[in-house]
Write a structure and sequence with these properties.
123 residues; mainly beta; four-stranded antiparallel beta sheet; globular
Length: 123
């Protein structure tokens, strides 16, 4: 089981980035997945989650209306489209697999984490 996040980079405030999370194992239970982020000195923060089967999504208040989570089942890939980026969005972003029975906004609900990808938004 492996998750590989990519797509981070440096962008100016107001710009956009799209993150990708490739799921390496075809038989991997990808029923529920999520994006999290962590800034230096801060706890890991929930960003968004998605139900693989029907794309039902959930967002943190801080990103709702600016970020969109999506998935491509055929490619075993999850995405995070980030628009209208703000300096406070600067963080390392992680993708993770969630236990479907647990709360998507709790880090302890996720049992497999990918390595992070750095997003830096300049003012």
């Amino acid at each position: 089981v492996q998750l590989q996040a990519s797509g981070g980079g440096l962008v100016q405030a107001g710009g956009s980035l799209r993150l990708s999370c490739a799921v390496a194992e075809a038989t991997f239970n990808t029923a529920h997945m999520g994006w999290w982020r962590q800034s230096p000195g801060k706890e890991r923060e929930f960003v968004a989650s998605i139900v693989w089967r029907d794309s039902k999504a959930r967002y943190a208040d801080s990103v709702r209306g600016r970020f969109t989570i999506s998935r491509n089942n055929a490619k075993n890939t999850m995405y995070l489209q980030m628009n209208a980026l703000k300096p406070e969005d600067t963080a390392v972003y992680f993708c993770a697999r969630k236990d479907p029975r647990l709360d998507s906004t709790r880090a302890s609900s996720y049992d497999v984490w990918g390595q992070g990808t750095q997003v830096t938004v300049s003012s």
